[in-house]
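re: ur question from earlier - yeah i can do the single chain one, its not a big deal. heres the input i used so u can compare w yours
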Amino acid sequence: MKKKGFTLAEVLITLGIIGVVAAMTIPNLINAHKAARYRSQFLKSYSTIQQALRLMSNDDLSLDFKDYKPNKFYITFKNYFKGAVDCGNSDTADMISKKIHNCWYWRNSNDYVSYSKKNMRTDWLDDGQIALPDGTNIYIENLYESFISVDINGFVNPPNRWGVDLFTFQLVNGELRAVGDLKTKFPDSDKYCNPTGTERENGISCTIKAINDPNYFKKAIKNVK
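and the output i got, formated as tokens:
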């Protein structure tokens, strides 16, 4: 009885087809996993910041940045996070020595980029920095604005890009609002969350999209490769 089998050519063709399918699907699977992880980290950070602000309010402490001297709000704020590390601010020179705690040194402005991978307003991250045990970094701007920014996976992990793993909130009348909200300083999210935008603030308004759009991170990862 004659045995049937595949020829070498048929095997090679089959392997070639499998390779093409894998090349087409694996990157999408990797990006989907990354997007899901980013979304989870973002929502966790958002909740953590909200909880800290609620605890401050319960202790009758002001949530108005105007009631704090420059570089001082974060000193009170950090007390409401378990295991938080004080990374200093632009007036202190010890952030370099604290890299062991995953603190970002504010003078290394090129460490962060805008949503479109251009220079960004890193001077809005320098009025106090807090590093949390889960690896996130929280940045305060309370000199000229009332911004709370968070690097959801820590500056030691790329891409360090506004609107991808760095997001900014604003305290408005004691209420935490996602920048891009109509009551915040940058309500135009189409302009300030633009894959081709050139403004130094580009990416700051992506926060509102990250909250409202469950598929935001899939789009963000695709847009800024």
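The chain has one domain: 8-223. not sure if urs matches, ping me
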